[in-house]
Structures are given as C-alpha cells and as structure tokens.
Amino acid sequence: MRAKERVDAISGTGEVCAVPGPNFAQSPRMEPQSQTLSAVAAALEASVAAGAVYRRKTLRERTAFLHAIARELEADADKLIATAARETHLDEARLRLELRRTQWQLFSYGNASLDGIPLGISIDTPSAAGGRSEADGGKLPDWGKVQPKQDLRKMQVPLGPVVVFGASNFPFAYSTAGGDTAAALAAGCPVIVKAHPAHAETSCGVATAVQRAAAACGLPEALFQHLEGGFDLGGALVQHPLTAAVAFTGSLEGGRALFDLAAARPRPIPVFAEMGSANPVFLLPGQLAEQGAELAKLLTASITSSAGQFCTKPGLLIGIEGPELDAFADALAKRISIVPPAEMLHSGIAKAFQHKRADALDIAGVEVAGTLSCPVGRNESIPTLATVPGEIFLAQPALHHEVFGPFALLVRCRDAAQLLDVALALEGQLTGTLMATTEELRELPELLEALQARCGRMVRNGVPTGVEVVTAMHHGGPYPATTDARFTAVGADGIGRFTRPVCFQNWEEELLPEELQRHNPLGVWRRVNGVLSREGF
Amino acid sequence: MRAKERVDAISGTGEVCAVPGPNFAQSPRMEPQSQTLSAVAAALEASVAAGAVYRRKTLRERTAFLHAIARELEADADKLIATAARETHLDEARLRLELRRTQWQLFSYGNASLDGIPLGISIDTPSAAGGRSEADGGKLPDWGKVQPKQDLRKMQVPLGPVVVFGASNFPFAYSTAGGDTAAALAAGCPVIVKAHPAHAETSCGVATAVQRAAAACGLPEALFQHLEGGFDLGGALVQHPLTAAVAFTGSLEGGRALFDLAAARPRPIPVFAEMGSANPVFLLPGQLAEQGAELAKLLTASITSSAGQFCTKPGLLIGIEGPELDAFADALAKRISIVPPAEMLHSGIAKAFQHKRADALDIAGVEVAGTLSCPVGRNESIPTLATVPGEIFLAQPALHHEVFGPFALLVRCRDAAQLLDVALALEGQLTGTLMATTEELRELPELLEALQARCGRMVRNGVPTGVEVVTAMHHGGPYPATTDARFTAVGADGIGRFTRPVCFQNWEEELLPEELQRHNPLGVWRRVNGVLSREGF
C-alpha cells in the first residue's frame, strides 16, 4: 500500500508515535503546513484501508480486540501510572483507579455489541400486517392497513475513521485508549488519536499497548494511529475529506473550534465535543437541616479532589437565604479553607484557573467565603468558595460559566422564586443536583422541569462527580455541555455516535450480514415485525 | 399568556395560518425584518409554553393526538386532495395514496412509543454485578469487576420546539403533517411548520386539521403552529434561541443553508435535512440477460412517474459495455421516449430541471438516448435518458449530482473495474440498487463495500422509489443525501432525531416518570442491568 509506506516513512519503523510534531518545524525542506497535510492524508488513507479490513471482522473478533487492549494496558500498568503521575501531577492512587476504569470501558463496550443492542436491528417482512399494536386491539381503520411489500432489514454500520482528541484531566479514561476510542473501535471504526501534548509520553505508552493488541489480534497496524502535533495538525485531521467523525473532550473554546471546522467542511461530519459544565447544585433548607454537615463534607471533596479538575465538579451551589444556608455555608467554607493547594495538570490550566477565579472575585458583590491564605506555587490552585447574592448572579452571565479547578460559587437566593429564576437562567449542563427532601421537590415541579430542560443527568442528594461506566449513565447535555445533546460520552450507548443505519431491501440470505440472516445465527436482539426477539424467524 | 396574545394579534382570531407572509411587506409601520423577528419570537415563546404542557401528557395521550390528526385528515380528505392537485399538478390518485401514507405515518409513529422502544430506557442498579456477559462465562478479570454504586435510570425526553420545512414534492407525506411533524410530535416536541409556498393552501388546510385535533385532545393551540413567509422567516426560525431542532426536506442548497445557519448559532442545534440523491443503479450483464426487458419497464416507471419528482428517483444507471447493456439501453430508451411530458410542481422546479438537463447534455460525450421530440409547455418536463462513457463520467463530477425530474444518465463502463471506479467516485446517496445475479455479486465484494459506504438503503433487483413506512426502513444516507447519516426521515426510528437522554441518579420512586418506576406500570421495554424486559424489577 502506498499510503502505508508513507506513514512508515514519516514515522520511522517501529515508532508508535507515528508523526512527531516538533520535527515539522525543524524540517528545512518543506513548509510545516504542507508536511502536516501530507502526513494527515497518509494517515487517513491508511485508516480507511485498515477500516475496510476491520469491518469484515465478526462482532466477537471486535470484542476480542477491545479485551486485548485492556490486557495490554494491564501489562504496562505500573509504568503507565508512573509516567502519567509525572506528566499530570495527579496522584498514583487516583491514576490506578482511572486506568482500571479505562480497562473496564474497553471491556464493557467490547461486550456491549455481543447481544446486538448497539446494532439497532429492525426487520420487516412482507408477510406481516403493518403496525398492529395493543392500542387498537388489532382493529385498524382502513387507512391504517398499510401492508409492507418489501423485505427490509436494517442495522448499524461503522461511520469510518474517527479522530479522537483526548482530555488533559483524564490521561487514561478520556484520552488515548479512553471512552471515545473504545466506543469508536466497538462501533467498528478505525481511530486516529491526536495526542494531548500535556501527557504526550503517557499517550505514547498507551498507544504502544493498543498497537500490540492490534498485532496480537492480527489486525492492521493503521487501525489505531497516534499522531503528535499542534492545532494545525488537529485542524487538518478534522478537515480531511476521509475523516468521518470527531470526538473531543476539553474546553468550550477547543470543542467549538473543532465543531466549526467540521460544520464548514464541503461535506460536514459529526463532532461530539464534551466541553464545559458548571454542574449546579440546588440546596433546599429542609435537606440542609437534615444533612447540612454531611453535605458540606461531601461537597468539599467533590469540589477539590484532583484539584477540582473534573468536568462534573460542582461549580455552582444555589440555596435560599436562611439559618440552614448560613450554617451550611459556614461549614463548607471552613472545610474548603483547610484544603491545601495542589499542582494543576499543566501551566496553561493553572493560569486559566487563576484568571477565571480572579475575574469572578472582581465582580462587585462576589465575596470569598473560604480559602487558604498562604503563598502558592506557580502552577498550583487555591481551593476557593465564594458567595454572591441571587440578583447579582442573575445580572452577571459571566458568573454562570465553568471555572475549571477547585472553585465553587454559592448563590444566595432571596426566596424559592429567585432560586427558580436562577435555574431558568442557566445554560446547558452535564449534571444538575438537587439536595432537597421529597416534600420540598413535590412543591417545586417547576424547578424539576427547568433542570431537566438543561441537564443530562439529575442527581438526588449526592454529588455529580463519580461518573459510573454503565449503560444507564448519561454523560452529555445541552450546549455548551456538549455539541450534541442526543449522545453520551460514557456508557456503551456512546457507540451510537459512530454508527449509521443501512437498510438491505430484498437481499438473498447468503449475501446478508450474519446479523440480519433469517435464522439469527448470532442470537442478537432484533425487532422483527415490531417485536423484540433473539430468535430466528 | 403574552406570547399567545401576540400570535393571536398577528394572525387574527380563528385563522390557523398564523402569520401571513406577504402582508409583512405591505405593513407601513414596521420594517419586514423586525416584524418577522417579533412574530418568530412570539411563536417560539408560545411553542415552549405549549411544549411544557405537552411534556406532562402520558404516552397514550400523545398517541391519541397523533391518531386524532390522522382522523381529522380523513374528514377533509377530498377537499385536501383537490386543493393539492390544483397546487402541485400531481394527479389525484397519487395524492390519495400519499394522504393515506401520511395518516399511516401519524398512526404508526403514534403507536411506536407505546412499547417504549423509542424511549431507549436503561436502568442500572447498585445490586447488579457489572457487565457480566456470555463472552466470559461469568468469569471476569480483576479489572472487570466494576460494581455500580448508584441507581441510574435513563430515558429519552423531547428536545423542544422543532421547526419543520416541508417538501414541495410531497404536499402531504413530507410536509405540514408529514413524517417530520409526526416524528417530532411523537417525540413529545411542539412543532412550528414553515409552510411551503408552492402548496400554501394545502398546507393551510392540513394545519387546520391538526389544530382541530389538538383542540379535540385538549392540547394547547400553540403545540402546532403554521407560519407563512419567505427565506427571512425560515432563517429567523432557525436562528431563534428557543428553537431546539430543525427538519427539512428539499434541495441541497436549501438544506445546506439552514444547516449553516444552525451551526453558526451561539448555541448550535441539530438540523436533519434530507436533500439530493442520484440513486445509482448498477446493472450487471447476467441480470440484464435474465430480466432486461422487465427492468427497462420497471425503471421507466421509476424514472418518470410523478414527473420524476422523487428523492429516490434512479438518476444514474451504471452498466458494463456489451450486448446485454445494448439491448437493455435500447428497450429503456424506447420506453422513455414515449412517456408524455408532464407539468412539474412549480415553475422554479421546471426551470431548474430544464437547466440541469441542458447542462448535462452540453457536456461532450453525453448523448440523448431516448426522449420525446415535441414542443412542451413552459412548466413541463420531457422524460429523458442520456448516455455517457465511463471515463467521461469519471472526469466530470458535474454529472454525479441529482437532476430533479424525469432524467436518467446511463453510464457505460468499459469493464467491471471501471464500474467499481464509478462506484468509488460517487458521493453519499439515499439508495443504491444492484441489478445483478447472486453469482455476479459474490464476485464483486468491493462493489458491495463501496456502495454500503455511500448509501443508506441497498436495493436488490428492484427500484429505489417506493419508500415503505416501517421501522426497518432507512431513509437517509451520507452527505449530501442528508446532513446527518445517523438518522432517518422515514420510520418510527426518526423520532430519535428529536429526543435526548436524561439520567436520573438515586431518585425516589414517586418523583420518577412512570416509565422509569421500578414496577414498570406502563409495561414498556427497558434494559434493566443489561437485560431487555417489559417486567418490573
């Protein structure tokens, strides 16, 4: 293959990090721009070729590949964790858990397709009476008797090459072999990872593990590619005609830039970007009276652990003025003011935190309630609780956005009506949390509705951090939480971001994919003439 | 409600066509632009309020509403068909079938939610062991033992107000109360239809029927709104902050313009635009030898009925030089050359057809094979078969696009290799058809792969026109067939264009929607700890 040779020539044989970024600038013979473009073209051509091979594999072979990646990560675990700890300043215990979660993602997304649910199979045959349902007791009006005349069989197929941009705050779980990569590979797509420069060595180590797994499974090397470079590389990857979809985890600015590039293409492609979220927590007096001290402890950990560098960190606490809120605020302020500063992921994130924190505190009416008063290192963050009256919050949209890091703003509302106004003023969120008694919520149906209209996940009397990797999880939400509220970044349903349906009309059995054959050799779930079943027909 | 009063004030009480377009320009007091903007704002505010009421209705109440619309259309059928025939020049028999199909869409999409499948419910509970599957015989590696700690219950909820732009070529089935409206209402969303100016009176009549149904079901008037106007109205609807999604059926230019507007919004929203498709038909010699004469007859009808004004009209016929293709081409040319001219939907479409036909015939190497030689009316189309050698087709991307109307281009390929090159050169398509014997396809797996990578529906030895409304149908495809290949415009799965997941974490039973309650009072399909079931737990 010409394409493959070009990739090899650029990367040097045996190197997994196929395209070293900094070298571009040092090349005397070629402009960086055109060298980047030709590297991207070579990568995409190789990706398409590898994808064609991968698409012919069975569901079980796909699953085995994802399991093999998890095993290879296990083999390198200690080394990967040590490297990641050095590059990200996250502690080893947390990173060990994160690596395990990453393996579990690969394992469970790999298993997900085996029962056929992500394939979304529907079959309608000419013999069936159309659209009978319990609703009409089998009696249809005349115009309801539409009889299908064709044999139609539909299933999800892979979109094609997916470009993955990992997150700085999860060097394993949302990065190189993280959720987006696992979902794309489970969907049957080849993957090109643009390595995050803040943990380039970790990324490279993880990529080696993935490529060992591919080799062990007899899959083409280019099924998973790992490129290093800057924004020009990322942009070129998103713009290349052969790229079929993009997955991104990171800042609003970064996600939006990629979304705009993809939408402006001659042939637009889907971008799933998981971006910012302030994750509002509503604190009602009844629940604070019952559980205030415990909630203060819970929220302190949720706001400050891993230096607050979670996309689900609760950044807005919204309560109603009164003795319960006072007591809770005191308890939370005391706890937060003794959490020591922590080194952030990298200097860019530390600088952004310091600026955004300062900007928030500069607004008249915003006051510090709890923070450590001691000198901090250049890349460290000071955990901070600030407070603001409801009316000022409502008047200052700048306060509504995420401050990435250990910062939370307590919004003190005059009454329940103002609390509802605050809920209605919020933008799209990954999560919304209700600390409230059942009675309190029964009396505030508008609050539930306002929150449901803005959030992807609604948490009762708990904290939004801790995103479990199960199918019922939804990690997404209306913009700016993500670029498409209809999809999730976590859980096997996220596979659907990278597939599309194809319908086969009147095909002979032998030319159909096994998944669609009459006797259902794989025993997958299918909707046959409207009825879900794992049997043949 | 202030918003409602404003709509009433603009529309005049009792008028269903709320915002008459041409009047804007005649208003002496206000610029058209600002009047359009305030009408759009009023419509969206009323839509959101009506949507809040509708969202609280049960699944059965939603279903009853869609059924009621179908009944109201039945009551007005004769009048609607006569009006549509006058406005569109389509014949009454065809329009009667189309109206029935429209009713069936409303009926079947309304029924679809009752078994819960479109709700995509997943529930994971803390007690369940994570991710066990047959693949591992219940034995998980250490890192596979991830135990859920939270109670997570996820279901699809409506996105919010959907703006629908209907098609000129289906005044019922893809227009005012057509598939997009039916899917959005089944999803639980309020709908605002921008009436198609080419069948404004039909659209108004259909809107009256929908609004009678809403009144009969005790639903708010603004749940379904019908606005008339030009491009500025359409643009303002897409750009309004309260609009949640857009559905469009029509030209590539129109769909792309709306997609670009939506992507450039401060808060981007999904646009599902179903646009152009050349619907290639591959003709292999073995099948032509067996069935050539019959195929010529079948394809003539498919190319010319309703003046070729179908999005699935086969516009490209691709065969391999030889006696079988010669005989087939002769038979097809003879048949097409005796099909009389027909009046097209409107003068704009007729003009576009005449231009695009002339442009194609102007390319050196493109020759007319069969067409009527007689004078035609100004808005009539002449059915035309043209031919072109494979190498010229490959060199002329202009020939790859849809010519909307009764025109087909027969591409004569030198050999099977060139036929494959043509397949690989095609853009995204709604359909791809294979006229071939089983043996011929067995020998051309690359052709199947190339076609599957480009098409939404793959037809065997039949014609692509005739899109059946069943769940297994897929009416969509890679760009430029649609703006998002992951969704369908036909079949109940199209409901998913207008919903998004919300996950409830650790909620008490009484505050959960019925669909998610433990004992499953609605008996809907749910994935509970990975297993599909209609039981409680």
From TrEMBL, chains A, B:
It holds the Pfam family Aldedh. Residues 30-476 form the Aldehyde dehydrogenase domain. It comes from the Bacteria. InterPro entries: Ald_DH/histidinol_DH, Ald_DH_C, Ald_DH_N, Aldehyde_DH_dom, Aldehyde_DH_Superfamily, ALDH_KGSADH. Keywords: Oxidoreductase. Gene3D superfamilies: Aldehyde Dehydrogenase, Chain A, domain 1, Aldehyde Dehydrogenase, Chain A, domain 2. PANTHER family: ALDEHYDE DEHYDROGENASE-RELATED, SUCCINATE-SEMIALDEHYDE DEHYDROGENASE, MITOCHONDRIAL. This is Aldehyde dehydrogenase (NADP(+)).
